[in-house]
Structure to design on (265 residues):
């Protein structure tokens, strides 16, 4: 009996020793702070990587056959060259004389001494005068694929989308004493608050100027608008503005956005 007890005790002791040994073998040893991949930082954060280098902006090319325009968001000065020391041409306000947001069509873009400049058409005399304005004075770009051609000899207006004519109409233009100016311009605003028998239900303001008083409410600007005398169209009947029948100006209003370039031949 005593021998049996001794044998059982020996077996139990061997089993306990084996279990204890296997358990301690599975527990990984504690890692010191110096061996941690996070380092010895008190916050436990990894060492920061090298700073990210942000490249300088690259001017985007215009989509083919489209014109860029942007609103003027900060009053600025248009200059002869893209340089703050260059001669000033004119002030460029954020509002037009008609009270709408001013905008410019972009003709070119260049960076000089860390400043990006935009060459823009201006609503000044002599007509067609461009100027350079800081890009920071302008809002985001918008794009149009329309353009208008007014032929004074034929007394017609044609609206193109890309290279395809989509609307054609006869027009009234300036008289010999007050001719509609020729040149390259753009649609600066769209107006309905001047709706009247004189201007019709809709009018567009352009960047074209005249050295004499025109039909335009602010005077001296060339507009495209309706009329209460459609029987006079086509003809040389205005003080410089371009007149359409009311039906034609409403059709044009559905097809032509602001920023559209205007060529008067």
């Amino acid at each position: 009996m005593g021998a049996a007890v001794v044998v059982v005790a020996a077996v139990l002791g061997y089993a306990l020793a084996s279990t204890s040994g296997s358990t301690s073998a599975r527990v990984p040893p504690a890692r010191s702070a110096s061996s941690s991949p996070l380092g010895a930082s008190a916050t436990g954060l990894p060492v920061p990587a090298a700073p990210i280098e942000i490249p300088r902006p690259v001017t985007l090319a215009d989509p083919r056959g489209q014109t860029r325009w942007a609103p003027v968001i900060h009053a600025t000065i248009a200059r002869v060259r893209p340089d703050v020391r260059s001669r000033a041409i004119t002030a460029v306000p954020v509002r037009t004389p008609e009270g709408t947001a001013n905008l410019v069509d972009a003709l070119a873009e260049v960076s000089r001494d860390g400043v990006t400049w935009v060459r823009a058409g201006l609503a000044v005399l002599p007509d067609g005068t461009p100027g350079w304005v800081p890009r920071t004075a302008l809002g985001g770009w918008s794009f149009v694929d329309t353009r208008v051609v007014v032929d004074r000899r034929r007394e017609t207006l044609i609206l193109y989308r890309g290279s395809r004519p989509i609307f054609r109409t006869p027009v009234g233009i300036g008289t010999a004493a007050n001719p509609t100016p020729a040149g390259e311009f753009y649609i600066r605003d769209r107006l309905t608050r001047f709706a009247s028998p004189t201007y019709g239900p809709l009018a567009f303001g352009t960047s074209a100027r005249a050295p004499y008083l025109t039909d335009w409410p602010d005077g001296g600007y060339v507009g495209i608008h309706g009329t209460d005398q459609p029987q006079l169209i086509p003809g040389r009947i205005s003080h410089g503005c371009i007149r359409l029948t009311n039906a034609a100006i409403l059709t044009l209003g559905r097809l032509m956005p602001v920023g559209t370039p205007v060529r008067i031949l």
